[in-house]
Amino acid sequence: MPIKTAFPTDPADSELSWQDSALCAQTGPEFFFPEPGSSTREAKRLCGACDMRSVCLEYALTHDERFGVWGGLSEKERYELRRASR
């Protein structure tokens, strides 16, 4: 059974090919999956400078990612975005 990572990176999966160019691929997951109560500021700063931000956010919304910072938004922010778009 393959090990599942925070950011799946199977090169055969073209849906995830954007991750190769994303800034998060150059950092550790601790920024994007902080301990409860920790700041997401650093992750959001990196996301703000990333060319893949919109693709990442779309992926997270499409796949209902419930944990971590994706596309510059926290779990709560993505939840609120989904709720507002209904």
TrEMBL record:
Residues 23-80 form the 4Fe-4S Wbl-type domain. One of its GO terms (biological process) is negative regulation of DNA-templated transcription. [4Fe-4S] cluster binds at residues 24, 47, 50, 56. InterPro entries: 4FE4S_WBL, Whib. Its main location: cytoplasm. Its cofactor is [4Fe-4S] cluster. GO terms for cellular component: cytoplasm. The Fe-S cluster can be nitrosylated by nitric oxide (NO). Upon Fe-S cluster removal intramolecular disulfide bonds are formed. It comes from the Bacteria. Binds 1 [4Fe-4S] cluster per subunit. Following nitrosylation of the [4Fe-4S] cluster binds 1 [4Fe-8(NO)] cluster per subunit. It is found in: Cytoplasm. It holds the Pfam family Whib. The keyword DNA-binding applies. Keywords: 4Fe-4S, Cytoplasm, Disulfide bond, DNA-binding, Iron, Iron-sulfur, Metal-binding, Transcription, Transcription regulation. One of its GO terms (molecular function) is DNA binding. Belongs to the WhiB family. HAMAP family: WhiB. Acts as a transcriptional regulator. Probably redox-responsive. The apo- but not holo-form probably binds DNA. This is Transcriptional regulator WhiB. The gene is whiB.
